[in-house]
Amino acid sequence: MLNYIWAGLIIISVVFALWQDGEDFQNDRYRNGEALSVQIEDLPPGYEGLEDPEPINVSVKISPADYISFFEPAEDMDLVTRGIKSAQVWAEAKAFFAKPIPAKLMTTNRGRELQLTVPDALPTPLDVIYEATKNDNDLLPTYLDGWVLTDGEPGRATASITFGHTSFVKVKQVSATMFEQAGSAVTFSIGLMGVIALWMGLMKIAEDAGLIAVFVKLVRPILGPLFPQIPKDHPALGLIAVNLAANMLALGNAATPLGIKAMESLQELNQEKDTATDSMVMLLAMNTASVQLLPPVTLIAIMGLAAADLFLPIFLVTLVSLGVAITAAKLLGKMRMFKKTDPMRPNNPNAQKGGAA
Question: Which of 33, 85, 128, 250 lies at a C-alpha separation of 20 to 30 Å from 210?
Fold first, then answer.
């Protein structure tokens, strides 16, 4: 079931991304193929007459008004009447383009290029264009449609530039995130395999040595009423106790294999293998709302020693949540609609061989 939920979320994300990209395409959000007017400064004498010159360092000035009118035409954004949003866009563009942008002017197989050195923060939507089209040197390539030297001002020219083609931005972001998270999942799974193997091995040794049986006798008075379907002295109670203890001590990676082992033991008692028993539901509820005697490892990593100050609130909140979880599991288990589907009910016609005797 969980696989279907994840698949549905992925499909919804892709559809939403396609819808957003469709709107951007319809509105020509990134002005693909259109030219923006800029000023090029610090050109060396005679540069315009050279064939395939070496790259040179220049400065590029972009008028905030030209930038705004290029990406937000007047019919879409009236800077005088559209209010706070327009004022913010104008302020961002004015602050960003207050200084010339360093760039390299060069000739490539696509013609003359201006490769802009990009600061940390870019105004919208130039930040999206940069992420989609930046080169290996983290420069923003733009292409000269034409330029005219400014009379009486040596080293300065008025030019028209176009940005690289930008499309399907949201779909690419969703795809990149999917592959990144898939890789993280594999890495996490491989690391978790060692932890699971270690604790499974230790529990097998403890079981063969009789330690689990001793532990069952100790926890039976406490856990017996919560798990009445488990036979007396069955090792499942010991495994459940160890699993809950690991959760209380915030040993997340240790609690996972112990919980799996406990569920496997409960499944051996299950008379209807494709349906969870009341004991399984109770264990899952208690795991989800387990009392925390120690702050979680993640919280300690973030807050350091200050996490100890949260001990009492964490303990009280998790104690209440555990009480609610146990009460809910017990009450729902007594409801008629759930009792008649309980795999451990007497005379279960769907009971499978291999269940509890």
Answer: 250
CB 290 within 8 A of CB 247: yes
152: helix, strand or coil: coil
Q: What's the pLDDT score for residue 66?
A: 87
Q: What b/e sequence results for 161-191 when a residue is b if at least 16 CB atoms lie within 10 Å of its CB, and e otherwise? A: bebbebebbbbebbeeeeeeeeeeeeeeeee
Q: To the nearest 10°, the Cα dihedral for 213, 264, 276, 328?
A: 50
Interatomic CA distance for residues 47 and 54, integer angstroms: 10
Q: How far apart are CA 18 and CA 30, in angstroms?
A: 16
- Angle in degrees, CA 300, 303, 309, rounded to 5: 85
Q: How far apart are CA 39 and CA 249, in angstroms?
A: 64
CB atoms within 10 A of CB 289: 21
* SS3 (DSSP) at 41: strand
Closest CA to 52 of 114, 117, 137, 109: 109
Distance, in Å, from the CA atom of 43 to the CA atom of 155, rounded to the nearest integer, reads 4
- Distance, in Å, from the CA atom of 17 to the CA atom of 2, rounded to the nearest integer, reads 23
Residue whose C-alpha is closest to residue 267's, from 356, 168, 192: 356
Cβ partners under 8 Å of residue 111, min gap 6: 143, 144
Contact 326, 282 (CB under 8 A): yes
Q: What does the block give as tokens for 308?
A: 């100890």
* SS3 assignment, position 132: helix
Q: What is the pLDDT of residue 19?
A: 93
Question: 63-78 burial string, b = 16+ CB within 10 Å, else e?
Answer: bbebbbbebbeeeebe
**Cis geometry, peptide bond prior to residue 125 (ω within 30 degrees of 0):** yes
Q: What is the mean pLDDT of the chain?
A: 80
pLDDT tens per residue, range 45-86: 766 655 556 788 899 999 888 888 888 765 444 444 444 456
| Burial (CB count <10 Å: 0-12, 13-18, 19+), residue 290 | buried
Tokens at 120, concatenated: 């940390």
Residue 62 corresponds to which tokens in the numbers above? 């972009």
Tokens of 7: 């698949």
Q: Delimit the domains of the chain by residue range.
A: 31-166, 210-339
CA angle 215, 221, 223 (to 5 degrees): 75
